[in-house]
Amino acid sequence: MPDILFGQSYFLRFDAKMWRMGQPYPPLGTLYAASALRARGYDVALFDATLAASEAAWAEAIDRHRPRYAVLYEDQFNYFSKMCLLRMREAAFAMIGMAKERGCRVIVSGSDATDHATDYHRAGADCILVGEGEETLAELLDRLEGRSDTPVEAIGGLSLPGPDGGEARSPSRPLIRDLDRLPFPVWDLVDVEAYRRFWRERHGYHSMNMVTTRGCPFRCNWCAKPIYGQRYTVRTPENVVSELVYLKRHYQPDHIWFGDDIFGLKPGWIGRFAGLVRAQDAVVPFKCQMRADLMDAETVAVLREAGCRTVWMGAESGSQRVLDRMDKDLRVGQIHEATRLLRAAGIEVCLFLQFGYPGEAWEDIRATLR
């Protein structure tokens, strides 16, 4: 019987467009949290909602594992979890209720819970992890399990039910600066073969996910950043390649998605990464997300050497007026030049675009379409 059942409320089937696209990834943030608690000596189990049919599968998992703690730990590396669709919030509330009915203490972590803590408390959550959650969760469970004498209210990064339906928040917690000390995600708890079958049936290859950073230091004013704000932390290339070697040896992915908000922002990082993957026979085709103003001929060349096949860029608009209103700190010309460099290197270019930004006119939309 595990101490903790980890889960999350992003059911791919509840997002009709993403189900049609058929590119599912396990909840990496959840896997990191489970790994951190297992390294601390806790027995953990995983419920992965991504390919599950409905919330009923969560209830079945609780009945099967009978944990003392049910932890809904949303994947902060999945931008759909970060934005939180209303249907997923409804699923989270239902899952909280199911866990409470079965006698579990319920702990929740995620962008939506950080922004709307009182709603989650009203749904039955006992504790909410505010911001980055691994260390807060570990300290909280140590206190609840009698391993620590630290009062719960003194643990940084917590939201507890307050009087009159409100909340009581403890002081905020600093971010984890040394990401290399975190254990790799608990891939052994994931049904990797189910993902492999899904991907190969839909696309003919199997993609897995990794992250090399946390957060984004830029100031785009439409972007919600309840977990990291504008802070940015980076794993070393050595640590990332070590994980990539592990995945290649144990699971043989055909492709990797690096789910960072911005891949390779730190100067020299991509070049060091490219050299290491080649030296350790760890080259796997990958896609990543980057900014157009980070592209120059040298960066594009080492991306290609490292195995990059696709770069997604947040162009957002072809109108400079709209980009300026967004505080994007980007020029339209930089988008065109980055696209030219990437295509010349044989790297596929994909763009995130927004339509309907406040103040956008038809002439701005036409500029984007051009």
Highlighted features:
alpha/beta, 15 helices, 370 residues, single chain, seven-stranded mixed β-sheet, 16% strand, five-stranded parallel β-sheet, Rossmann fold, 2 domains, TIM Barrel
Oligomer: single chain
Q: Order of SSEs, N→C?
A: EHHEHEHHEHHEHEEHEEEHEHEHEHHEH
Low-confidence stretches: none
Cα shape: globular
- Summed over residues and divided by their number, the pLDDT gives a mean of 96
Q: How is the secondary structure organized here?
A:
Layout: E1 4-7, H1 16-21, H2 28-39, E2 44-46, H3 56-65, E3 69-73, H4 79-83, H5 86-101, E4 105-109, H6 111-115, H7 117-122, E5 127-129, H8 134-144, E6 158-161, E7 167-169, H9 192-203, E8 207-210, E9 213-215, E10 232-234, H10 237-251, E11 255-258, H11 269-279, E12 286-290, H12 297-306, E13 308-316, H13 320-325, H14 332-344, E14 348-353, H15 362-369
Parallel strand pairs: 1-2, 1-3, 3-4, 4-5, 8-11, 11-12, 12-13, 13-14
Antiparallel strand pairs: 5-6, 6-7, 9-10
Helix pairs in contact: 2-8, 10-11, 11-12
GO cellular component, one term: cytosol
Cofactor: [4Fe-4S] cluster
Protein name: Radical SAM protein
Could you characterize what this model shows?
- One of its GO terms (molecular function) is 4 iron, 4 sulfur cluster binding.
- One of its GO terms (cellular component) is cytosol.
- Its cofactor is [4Fe-4S] cluster.
- Residues 13-151 form the B12-binding domain.
- Keywords: Iron, Iron-sulfur, Metal-binding, Methyltransferase, S-adenosyl-L-methionine, Transferase.
- Helix 2 crosses helix 8, helix 10 runs parallel beside helix 11 (269-279) and helix 11 (269-279) runs parallel beside helix 12 (297-306).
- The chain has two domains: 4-169, 3-Layer(aba) Sandwich (Rossmann fold), CATH 3.40.50; 191-369, Alpha-Beta Barrel (TIM Barrel).
- With 370 residues, the chain is α/β, with parallel strands linked by helices.
- The protein is 39% helix and 16% strand.
- Strand 6 (158-161) and strand 7 (167-169) form a beta hairpin.
- The protein has a seven-stranded mixed β-sheet with strand order 2-1-3-4-5-6-7, with helices on both faces.
